[in-house]
């Protein structure tokens, strides 16, 4: 049986597929003008399951190809099970899963392939065996969790760091939106005549990261797009190093003393 979150997720994906179809048919936007990413769930890591998982996503989204397909987590559960019960956790075999991802890239079904929630070490291990290097590592990144080590590692290896929860996800059950209340972010915003959200997004852009802010509000979507023709000057940018660093999405639900990752330190390889 699906948990509510999964059911909601499937409904949401189908709605996105319907919306995309309508927009393409009405000529509002062309497929090639969009950049569409999806992720491989941790129950589909077996190499033989990877093409089927991508196929299901393409069917749900009514698309022929994805621009980017990511391994969502360096973590695996038995097929058909979910996160929550450590008995279902099995060691991931990232090189094998990556081999299947590479074949999807070869076939043109995923124009780029990458990972998500990988530490510098896990990303380095993957790069050392990959035929096609990961294009992207999508991770939590905002002024309150700046990913300094991963940022440097990605820069030196040519992997693009893409920031999820760039506003620290106010209102989510996992995170707290603390970045929008941070005194340094607020004072920079006041000096520049911008909102704290715009400053948080602009910080990621100036770090060279992609940013993925979520909003259902037209006004906030417009505000979040208005971050390209101004910049945070160096003296104010330097202030961000004073912000206390706390990883908000620790993935503690993955860690179990009887399972693959016994501590958060093991899961994040010390980047916690
Ligand atoms: P809403 O969808 O009602 O606009 P993140 O991208 O870090 O995951 O954060 C998403 C959350 O941040 C959503 O709850 C969203 O609410 C809120 N949000 C998005 N843009 C802004 C903004 N410009 N100012 C304040 N909150 C925002």
What does this molecule look like?
Keywords: Acetylation, Oxidoreductase. Residues 16-243 form the NADP-dependent oxidoreductase domain. GO terms for molecular function: oxidoreductase activity. It comes from Brachypodium distachyon (Purple false brome). Pfam families: Aldo_ket_red. By secondary structure, the chain is α/β, with parallel strands linked by helices. The protein has 2 domains: 6-165 and 249-268, TIM Barrel (Alpha-Beta Barrel); 168-208 and 216-246, no CATH class. It is 39% helix and 11% strand. It is built from 10 helices and 8 strands. The strands form 2 sheets. Strands 1-2-5-6-7-8 form a 6-stranded parallel β-sheet. The chain has a two-stranded antiparallel ribbon with strand order 3-4. Strand 6, helix 5 (148-157) and strand 7 form a beta-alpha-beta unit. Helix 1 (4-25) crosses helix 2 and helix 6 (183-192) packs across helix 7 (196-206). The longest helix has 22 residues, at 4-25. The model has no long low-confidence stretch (mean pLDDT 94). The chain binds adenosine-2'-5'-diphosphate. Residues 165-171, 180, 195, 197, 213-217, 220, 223-224 line the site of adenosine-2'-5'-diphosphate.
Please name the defining characteristics of this protein.
272 residues; alpha/beta; two-stranded antiparallel sheet; globular; binds adenosine-2'-5'-diphosphate
Short structural summary:
It comes from Brachypodium distachyon. The chain has 272 residues and is of the alpha/beta class.
